[in-house]
Structures are given as structure tokens and as C-alpha cells.
Specification:
By secondary structure, the protein is mainly beta. The protein is 6% helix and 32% strand. The chain is built from 2 helices and 19 strands. Strands 1, 2, 3, 4, 5, 6, 7, 8 and 9 form a 9-stranded mixed sheet that branches. Strands 11, 12, 14, 15, 16 and 19 form a 6-stranded antiparallel sheet that branches. It is elongated and about 60 Å long. The two termini are 19 Å apart.
Length: 263
């Protein structure tokens, strides 16, 4: 049974709709009399200014999702204060070269997790939490919402039609064959060599695609591609396995979905 043009557009909209930033952590109302405070140091010695300290509540303890609980940037002596309601949190500090408190992390940015996690904040108290950050290593650009400590991964290159590396492309992996809805994981934009890396937290079957943008419908002429060494564009990821050579060649998206939307 053929779908009507409107139904087709709605289905495609579900595939490519935005929102890859994830669901924010459950909000905790700040209490003026409780929270955490301390200093952020590099290598445990030198104060680092411009670092943001993040608190994740007990329901999002993996620290893969965005959070609304973020301190102001640290001062020149590395000091910070973060008001928090009484409860249990996991604490991490990050500093991006961009200076923004949000977004992806890349090689050379700073990050450090509080070794005493999880931390309990008590009513009427400010707990001292000193953190140490270090520059992120690694060849690939990293996302803060990826599992950076895992032993499973999907890596490869995104290539343009002319065979050159596609810089700034997003690789998306889905758990559904039809690639409907949000992807399970979204990569950092590929680097100058077209390389990407994604670290799923669970083994399983993943369907792989790449775009130069995300959100909304794909536009006519936009570079788009899928992993084509498998007819279903899928990979099988097992425990303690890093899949390499999952390369994607992008070509121009030929359909004009705006015209479909007009009918």
C-alpha cells in the first residue's frame, strides 16, 4: 500500500527531527543554604579558570545526558560555588576551548570527574568538592554524552563523492531498522580526515547513516549517506569489541521533500 505524500513527509520528519541534545536531567530546585564549593586544578596543582562544574542527579548518574545544574565558570584561582538542593549527585568539571558550558568535547579540552562520586548534599551545608581536570587525549573528537570509558565502539571515515574526507559530517546510529525517531548516538562532527568514533553503552545491532546536518528534513542537494557494506546498513556490535572501517560515502540527496510537503 502506497503512502500519501503527506504521510511520507511525516514519516521522514520522524526520522530526521531534531532534538539530539538529549533530555535534560531532572531539575532540582536550588537551595540557598546547600550545595557544593571548591577549586578546580589541573593535575592537582595549577588553578584553572573558566571551568564549569556539572551536577547530575541520581536518575542520570551515567553523566551522558545534558544537565541544567551547572556552576558559573571558575574564577582565576579556580574557585566555584554551585547551589544544589539536598540530594545525591555525581559531579564532573569541563572546560571547552570555545568557552561554552555546553556542546561537544574535543581533543585538548579539559575534563575531570569527582573521584568521590556519588556525593550527598545535605540541607543547610555546602560540601567542599575539589576537582582535578586534565586534557582529553585521543585521536577522535569526543562527545561528552558518549561513553568515553567503554570497551565497545564503532569507528571509521566519512568520504565525499570525490573520494576526499568529509569534514564536519555527523554519523548517527539507530537501534531501529527503519532509522525512525532519534538516533541512539550522534557523533561529534568528523575531523579533517573524515574520522569519527561512537561508543555505545550496550552491544547490539546498530543502523548507521551520516549527514552534514541534523534536525528537520534532509534538503535536496545535501550530502547524505549510509553504511553500504551491509544491505541493511547495519553493524553488529559485541561486548569488548571496537568495529573499525565502518566507512560511509556521501552523495547528494536527490529528493525535494519541500515539494512533497506542498501536496
Amino acid at each position: 500500500m502506497k503512502r500519501s505524500p503527506v504521510a511520507l513527509v511525516l514519516a521522514l520528519a520522524m526520522i530526521f527531527a531534531g532534538g539530539f541534545t538529549g533530555t535534560p536531567a531532572a531539575s532540582a530546585e536550588p537551595s540557598p543554604g546547600s550545595g557544593i564549593k571548591g577549586h578546580v586544578l589541573q593535575g592537582g596543582k595549577d588553578a584553572v579558570a573558566g571551568v564549569y562544574v556539572y551536577a547530575y542527579d541520581s536518575h542520570n548518574s551515567d553523566m551522558r545526558m545534558p544537565t541544567q545544574l551547572i556552576s558559573p565558570p571558575t574564577t582565576q584561582d579556580g574557585a566555584y560555588t554551585l547551589n544544589l538542593a539536598p540530594g545525591t549527585y555525581r559531579i564532573v568539571a569541563r572546560k571547552r576551548a570555545s568557552g561554552s558550558p555546553r556542546g561537544y568535547l574535543s581533543k585538548g579540552d579539559f575534563e575531570g570527574e569527582y573521584p568521590g562520586n556519588p556525593l550527598t548534599v545535605k540541607a543547610g551545608e555546602f560540601t567542599t568538592v575539589d576537582l582535578s581536570v586534565a586534557t582529553l587525549p585521543g585521536k577522535f573528537l569526543l562527545a561528552p554524552f558518549a561513553n568515553l570509558k567503554g570497551d565497545m565502539g564503532i569507528t571509521g571515515k566519512v568520504i565525499k563523492e570525490d573520494g576526499k574526507p568529509a569534514t564536519g559530517a555527523y554519523v548517527m546510529v539507530y537501534t531501529r531498522k527503519d532509522r525512525m525517531g532519534r538516533p541512539a548516538f550522534l557523533s561529534k562532527p568528523t575531523n579533517q580526515d573524515g574520522e569519527y568514533a561512537i561508543y555505545p553503552t550496550e552491544p547490539g545491532t546498530y543502523y548507521v547513516a551520516a549527514r552534514t546536518d541534523y534536525g528537520d528534513l534532509p534538503r535536496k542537494g545535501e550530502p547524505y549517506g549510509t553504511y553500504d557494506k551491509d544491505p541493511e546498513h547495519k553493524v553488529e556490535l559485541r561486548e569488548k569489541t571496537v568495529l573499525t572501517g565502518i566507512d560511509i560515502t556521501m552523495s547528494r540527496f536527490t529528493r525535494d521533500l519541500t515539494k512533497c510537503a506542498e501536496h
